[in-house]
Amino acid sequence: MSPFWKTLTRKAPVSGPSYTCPVCKYDGPFTTLTPTTGTRVHAECPKCGALERHRLQHLVLEALRGTHDFSRMRMLHFAPEAFFIPYFRKRVKEYKTADLFEPKVDFRVDITKLPFKAGEYDFVFASHVLEHIDEDLKAISEIRRVLSPNGIAILPVPVVAPRTIEYPEPNDFESGHVRAPGPDFFDRYRQFFGEVRVYTSSDFPDEHQTYVFEDRSQLPTAESPLREPMPGVKHPDYVPVCVV
């Protein structure tokens, strides 16, 4: 277990604004988290555990169902989140999971060297994966290769810097991240995909609380020495939808 998760604590949501979780429909205050990177208020749904990014991703998925027929899609889900597994199983034609280390997946694979045929999948979902991958361009290329014509890939990363910062080695205090992505990270997707649509927190109602409330003005810190400060305590999250 990394130092990041050893120091992660939760504060029960006993008071504060009331929000609605789009994943499980809980209504009430959300839980505050205190990782080493800084306190995040209104972060976690106390019922299902969905974080800011998960709630935003769920809203984006529901919006995409209006333009994409999930029931015809063969899907590959990297690093599968427990509460998203039943969501996808119910909606796609064929559902497979993948991870390099997790034993309870369909495929134990390296995302930079996928064993699948070109065009084998119609939908790839990999949330907060690429910030852990040294050869991220190779991974993006492989994701693009295994997608069918008109396929889609949803590839969010944590946008935690004004511009992307590459680390010389993984940072255990940031869950083993090898970079701090900025909004410019999505330009890497445009090297491989015909269209990249980026959804953000402001695209959906505030009642679902998809922003990251975190003071990043004190950066850099001893735990995150290469991070840059960001003004404000309310930061948008992002979901890039990459279309072949």
Which secondary structure elements does this structure contain, and how are they paired or packed?
Layout: H1 3-6, E1 10-11, E2 19-20, E3 27-28, E4 31-33, E5 40-44, H2 52-64, E6 74-78, H3 85-91, E7 94-99, E8 107-108, E9 121-126, H4 136-146, E10 147-154, E11 165-171, E12 177-180, E13 195-200, E14 212-214, E15 234-235, E16 238-243
Parallel strand pairs: 6-7, 6-9, 7-8, 9-10
Antiparallel strand pairs: 1-4, 2-3, 4-5, 5-14, 10-16, 11-12, 13-16, 14-15
Description:
The chain has helices at 3-6, 52-64, 85-91, 136-146, and strands spanning 10-11, 19-20, 27-28, 31-33, 40-44, 74-78, 94-99, 107-108, 121-126, 147-154, 165-171, 177-180, 195-200, 212-214, 234-235, 238-243. It has a 7-stranded mixed beta sheet. It has a 5-stranded antiparallel beta sheet with strand order 1-4-5-14-15, with no helix packed on it. Strands 2-3 form a two-stranded antiparallel sheet. By secondary structure, it is an alpha/beta fold. The protein is built from 4 helices and 16 strands. It has a single domain, classed as Vaccinia Virus protein VP39 (Rossmann fold, 3-Layer(aba) Sandwich), CATH 3.40.50.150. 14% of the residues lie in helices and 28% in strands.
